[in-house]
Design brief:
The structure holds 2 protein chains of 2 kinds.
Chain A: H1 2-85, H2 91-105, E1 111-114, E2 118-120, E3 124-127, E4 144-150, E5 154-168, E6 171-181, H3 182-193, E7 198-203, H4 215-218, H5 223-227, H6 233-245, E8 249-255, E9 258-266, E10 272-279, H7 280-343, H8 353-369, E11 375-382, H9 385-392, H10 394-411, E12 417-419, E13 424-430, H11 431-435, H12 437-454, E14 459-465, H13 473-493
Antiparallel strand pairs in A: 1-2, 1-6, 2-3, 4-5, 5-6, 7-10, 8-9, 9-10, 11-13, 11-14, 12-13
Helix pairs in contact in A: 1-7, 9-10
Chain B: H1 3-36, H2 53-56, E1 74-80, H3 86-104, E2 108-114, H4 121-132, E3 138-141, H5 146-158, E4 163-167, E5 180-182, H6 186-200, E6 205-211, H7 217-231, E7 236-243, H8 248-261, E8 267-270, H9 274-285, E9 291-295, H10 299-307, E10 310-316, H11 318-333, E11 350-354, H12 355-366
Parallel strand pairs in B: 1-2, 1-3, 3-4, 4-5, 6-7, 6-8, 8-9, 9-10
Antiparallel strand pairs in B: 10-11
Helix pairs in contact in B: 3-11, 4-5, 6-7, 8-9, 10-12
The chains are: A alpha+beta, B alpha/beta.
Chain lengths: 500, 370
């Protein structure tokens, strides 16, 4: 029974330990798998969002520039119509009107140019043929959109329309124009994207006409010169074709381990292409920080979980061990009780025949091993039990047995007394009990002889001491039993009411 | 199991659950906060090499008006210069910056900035005469020919007109003009460029000099500086001197003619902005080995410098010339004379640059990155 309980506990502990390890391993694996899945999904999302974001932004920028150009041409047409209706008599008046129109229409650096290429602005009149390339033409037939680089690296977007028929103070005017500093346009668009992306304007040949760097790799270089070697020849050719044919497109390339994605769209009404670039690594770096923090969170969670599992498992195991021990003790106690019950005579409370057999076997084993000890066997038999049973009933007989047992136990300790038959008791005396055996038996016999007169319980006692030549306890028992029968006869002679 | 044992287990479980929950919540909250303040920043800084001091100091684009307080809130000037040419467009940008800064102070500066398509002292004289009739606060002139213009300026000053000279050419010595804002060392510029050429040619060889407009002080002074320098070396010889009248095309044809006349030409000194461009085109076309030195900052010339076709260029600080011209004109208009408020002549710098400086100069002036 005990062995079975140990196996169950061991199995339980093993199962709990393996279970805990498996759960922990699964949690760790699942966490790392989730982290990897999240990372991959984030990369995909970054690419997808970047492309979508850039396409939208490039289109928005292109429309902004288209709108700026279109509005500027419309405003110039309105301005020219206004000037035509004015009666201007001096250069001062002309300057005042130009200034007024700039303010009213929100025009930037509005200027009129006469047939001698003299440019009239709000504050200055200057000869401008060398400064504005489009003035080298004798006359303009259509709108002009040009970008010029001025000394000091200032790039100007110039929008001009012919002004046929415009005459002021006797002079014919051939063209009017407005100018925008490209930095103004770049700043205007940069405000839209809060500096998170890079914007550049390109000519169809890929020349950067805005002067703004398109990220750290392409920078201000010719677009196609910059990406040559960064993308395949096929991709390079495709993009070149897109530029030339005025098609929109997108491109992703890697440089120094960083991914850069750009989208470009043609700007309506011009030969330009608006390109917007975002460096994915910028977003990824930020997301990576968040991911790393999340991963750290997961790691902390794992550590907490592991520690918690270990602590809880330890506590549970300790508690279970304690519980098991308590149960074991209870079972042992119960077992002992059952054993005592099995070895106890239910009527008298002393040990029974079964207990005597076990004790006999134990003593025989000792004798066999040579562990000789001082030992005596006392045999007692109740006289007249049958007579009492027959004449006074079994209850009286039982009372007689209990009286006999009580009498024996007055002289011998309870633990060494056995009831080995209906009316027969045995006491095995060792130690101090052995030493005072004669005294006890003498006194017991005196009491028995007195009981004859008082018609109380009479017990015939015989005894014997373990001798060296004895092989078994039964040898001692037989000598004591014979002596008991002799005594029984003596007692009968003394007037015991009935005998055996 | 004893009742106390059960309570202890429940208590421990509760404590650990709370600890785990608190720990995870704490970290999650932190992550959440950080996500909320996701800050996408610029991922790169432009990596420019430290620009050469030579190039950076050649042109000063950073100017601020001085503390002088103008007496009026509006000024009207007239400026005329030799010829319609990008060099004076660069001067104009400096003038416009000063004009803008005055406007920021509530002072309106208007002006005319005029030149003929072809350099002509007579045309300039006519323009000045016409301008004198109008009520300009100051008249400024880049002298096309000092012999013709200087007397006219004296007359104008005598008549009460406030006159100044500016940009590249001053009037003749002794002219009554109030001040000159521009290059005061044209002779030395010509001498410096030529000295560089001579050194390059190891002080021997045949040299041609291309000048701009006959009589234009700046061009003539540079040519004089060039010829005087060459004269110092016995093994050097000037084989041709030609005037391109500030025309690239003329410079080109003149150079081709010189190279045909002197196929063994060793060097060309160019005294204005158009000379080196035309000369370089011709040298390339004829596959000549002539070494070119020249003036100014023409974009095409800078490219030739970068490619090694031009050996060196003398770059003038046009921007500063323009800025100082307007600032001085305002002071002159208020009746001030040269002295503490402004010098009688400025000392605008000229910087000789070489092939190593070309790319940076192109970027500085034209935003070009090669």
């Amino acid at each position: 029974m005990k062995q079975k309980k140990q196996i169950t506990t061991k199995t339980f502990v093993l199962t709990a330990a393996i279970g805990s390890l498996l759960i922990t391993a699964m949690v760790i694996i699942n966490t790392f798998w989730s982290a990897k899945q999240t990372g991959d999904a984030t990369d995909d999302a970054v690419s997808a969002v970047s492309s979508f974001y850039l396409e939208t932004m490039a289109d928005s920028h292109a429309k902004t520039i288209t709108s700026l150009i279109s509005n500027s041409f419309d405003e110039m047409a309105i301005a020219v119509a206004y000037i035509e209706d004015e009666d201007i008599h001096s250069q001062e008046e002309l300057r005042e009107i130009i200034g007024r129109l700039e303010s009213l229409l929100g025009m930037n650096q509005f200027a009129l140019v006469d047939e001698n290429n003299v440019v009239y602005t709000r504050y200055t009149t200057y000869t401008g043929r060398s400064r504005h390339a489009f003035l080298s033409q004798e006359s303009l037939d259509d709108r002009v959109i040009s970008i010029g680089t001025l000394y000091g690296s200032s790039r100007q977007l110039c929008l001009a329309i012919p002004t046929p028929g415009l005459s002021i103070m006797g002079k014919n005017y051939k063209v009017c124009f407005v100018q925008f500093d490209i930095d103004y346009i770049a700043d205007m668009l940069a405000d839209d994207n809060q500096g998170r992306t890079h914007f550049s304007l390109y000519s169809k040949s890929g020349s950067n006409i805005s002067g703004t760097p398109l990220g750290p790799v392409i920078s201000n270089q010719n677009f196609f010169g910059a990406i040559e070697g960064l993308v395949s020849e096929e991709v390079w050719n495709k993009n070149r074709e897109n530029f030339e044919k005025g098609k929109e497109g997108s491109l992703t390339f890697s440089s120094d381990g960083a991914n850069e994605t750009l989208s470009y769209v043609p700007i309506e009404g011009t030969d330009w292409v608006a390109a917007v670039l975002i460096r994915e690594s910028v977003i990824q770096d930020q997301i990576r920080d968040v991911s790393e923090r999340n991963l750290e969170t997961s790691r902390n969670q794992i550590i907490f979980t592991l520690v918690s599992v270990l602590v809880l498992a330890t506590i549970l195991l300790l508690q279970f061990s304690k519980l098991s021990n308590e149960k074991l003790e209870e079972e042992k106690k119960t077992s002992r009780n059952f054993r005592n019950m099995a070895n106890t005579d239910s009527m008298t409370g002393v040990k029974n025949k079964h207990a005597y057999s076990e004790e006999e076997a134990y003593i025989n084993n000792s004798i066999e091993k040579g562990d000789f000890q001082k030992l005596a066997v006392v045999v007692g038999d109740i006289n007249g039990l049958k007579y009492v049973n027959d004449n006074f009933g079994h209850a009286a007989g039982d009372q007689l047995i209990m009286d006999a047992c009580n009498l024996i136990c007055e002289f011998f300790t309870h633990d060494e007394v056995f009831r080995v038959g209906g009316d027969e008791f045995v006491a095995i005396l060792r130690g101090e009990n052995f030493d005072r055996m004669q005294e006890a038996i003498t006194e017991l016999n005196r009491r028995v002889e007195a009981n004859i007169k008082e018609k109380a319980v009479v017990i015939a006692i015989g005894y014997s001491i373990l001798e060296q030549e004895d092989q078994h306890l039964s040898d001692v028992f037989e000598r004591a039993d014979r002596m008991m029968y002799e005594r029984k006869k003596e007692l009968k002679a003394m007037g015991t009411p009935t005998g055996r | 199991m004893p009742g106390n044992g059960k309570k202890k287990i429940i208590l421990l479980l509760t404590i650990f659950s709370m600890l785990i929950f608190a720990a995870c919540s704490s970290v999650s909250d932190k992550a959440g906060e950080d996500e909320g303040t996701l800050d996408v920043k610029e991922s790169f800084t432009e990596d420019h090499a430290e620009p050469a001091d030579t190039v950076l100091s050649a042109v000063n684009f950073e100017h601020n008006l001085d503390s002088y307080r103008p007496q009026k809130d509006h000024y009207n000037f007239y400026f005329t210069y030799k010829i319609v040419h990008p060099w004076w467009d660069a001067v104009a940008l400096g003038m416009e910056e000063a004009q803008r800064q005055y406007l920021d102070r509530g002072i309106t500066v208007t002006y005319e900035y005029m030149a003929p398509d072809h350099a002509s002292a007579q045309d300039q004289a006519a323009r000045l005469t016409e301008a004198e009739k109008k009520d300009y606060d100051v008249i400024g002139v880049d002298v096309a020919d000092e012999d013709i213009i200087s007397p006219l300026l004296d007359k104008m000053v005598d008549a009460g007109t406030k006159v100044m000279t500016f940009s590249s050419s001053d009037a003749a010595e002794g002219c009554k003009r109030i001040a000159y804002m521009g290059n005061t060392h044209n002779y030395q510029d010509g001498a410096d460029l030529t000295e560089a050429l001579c050194e390059k040619l190891e002080y021997k060889g045949k040299i041609a000099i291309l000048v701009g407009n006959p009589g234009a002080p700046c061009h003539e002074d540079r040519a004089k500086g060039a010829s005087d320098t060459i004269a110092k070396y016995k093994d050097m010889e000037i084989v041709a001197t030609e005037y391109d009248k500030d025309s690239v095309d003329v410079a080109y044809f003149l150079t081709k003619k010189i190279l045909k006349d002197h196929p063994d030409l060793d060097g060309i000194v160019c005294c204005n902005m158009s000379n080196p461009v035309g000369a370089a085109r011709a040298v390339m076309e004829l596959n000549s080995s002539a070494v070119i030195v020249g003036m100014d900052h023409d974009e095409e010339a800078l490219r030739y410098l970068d490619e090694g076709i031009i050996y060196c260029l003398g770059v003038q600080d046009c921007y500063s010339i323009g800025f100082d011209t307007i600032q001085t004109a305002v002071k002159i208009a208020d009746g001030n004379m040269a002295g503490d408020l402004f010098p009688e002549k400025t000392d605008e710098i000229t910087t000789v640059i070489y092939q190593k400086d070309a790319a940076l100069m192109l970027e500085l002036l034209y935003g070009e990155i090669l």
